[in-house]
Each structure stands twice: as structure tokens, then as C-alpha cells.
């Protein structure tokens, strides 16, 4: 059975699956004036699914006024150039990843382990370059659906951000934390700096929210903060080989 084109997380906040039912997700935030902000754009082939998700919400690409990228990896920024062309919307990304988005290249991988060094040598990692209209900073509150706060969580990439929609108490984690077979850190081999990613993920345990949308995995709509904090508390007690 095909996944639904859009899934409600909170009032005005929707997840749009772009790979499988929840393997990779984009998000749409709807404003009272009818405008839409997209968060992440999936892989290069994802835009038709995003357009279908918008249609399920009664929206058209022309309703999209801003595209926000959590980071410049091809499964999050791969469709950005296409969606920017379809919508005419500017693309916003943290200044730490802006150069990679504009070049269409992924940030370097963590090579502190043999697996990371092997993964870094694999081909691929590119995506269509996209102009960056806005460079985000930590703590910035975007004028999106009542307020979307930028939370810098670097490590997965140099400029990785999570996003807190304060009116609905909804966190969009980006790849700081996955919800794949349970809440977990991003795999080391996918990070630019895994140790930093692990440290900054703990910021998410200190924020106030009730729901969490994950760019990889299904949302948690009840007790999300407690679920994240339980994972983080357990994670610091386990030894992770460096």
C-alpha cells in the first residue's frame, strides 16, 4: 500500500514522505495566509512526491514562499533546485552548509574510523546546486506559521540545524537524531564529525516540545521530548568506540 502523500503531525505541520512510508521525509508548515514553508526537499527525484503532498493539503507549488534545508546532503537538498524552480521560493540553509548547497556537494565525512574512511571514498554525494537566498544562524526565529526557531546542531554536517515550531510545540530534528528502529544517533559514517553530532544532539533534550518529526523515520506525537531524553540518557551511559 502506498503511503499517504501527507501526514498531519500538529495543526499546520505535515510530514511529506519522499522515500517509502517514512524512510526520508520533507515537511510542510502552513501559515494562516495560505502560504507554505517547505523543510527539506528529499533526493533529486523527490519533487513530484512533494508536489503530490502539497496537493493533498490543497496547496500548489506557487503557495510555497520559503524552502528551509536542515543540511546540504543529497537526500535533503537533492530536490532543492527543482523545488526552487517550481515554486520561485528562496532557499534558506545555515551558513555552515550554504557553500555546499551552492556547489551541489556534500560536506566531507568523518574519517576518524576505518568505516568512515571507506565510506568517504565511495562515489556519489553530489546534487544539483541551488542558490542560497538566506543564511540561517543559531537562535534565529523565522516568520513561519507563528515562529520557527533555528537550533544549530552541527556534527552531522557543519551547518546542520534542527527546527522548533514553537506555536505547536513541534520539533523537526533533521538528522541530529533518527527514529529508525527506535530513536538513535545518526550513523557515524554519515556525519562530518560524529563526536560533535553526538554532543549537539543533547541540545534537543533541553528544548520544550510535545511532538517530534524526524527526517528519517515516523513522527512521535505524544511524549516526544521524554522519548528523546530517555534515549540521550541511555546513550551517555553506553560506551561508544571512538
TrEMBL record:
Organism equals Pseudonocardia kunmingensis
A GO MF term: hydrolase activity
- Record-annotated Metallo-beta-lactamase domain positions: 23-216
Is the keyword Hydrolase in the record? Answer: yes
Q: Name one Pfam family in it.
A: Lactamase_B
Q: What is this protein called?
A: Glyoxylase-like metal-dependent hydrolase (Beta-lactamase superfamily II)
The UniProt keyword set, sorted, is: Hydrolase
> Which SUPFAM superfamilies is this protein grouped with?
Metallo-hydrolase/oxidoreductase
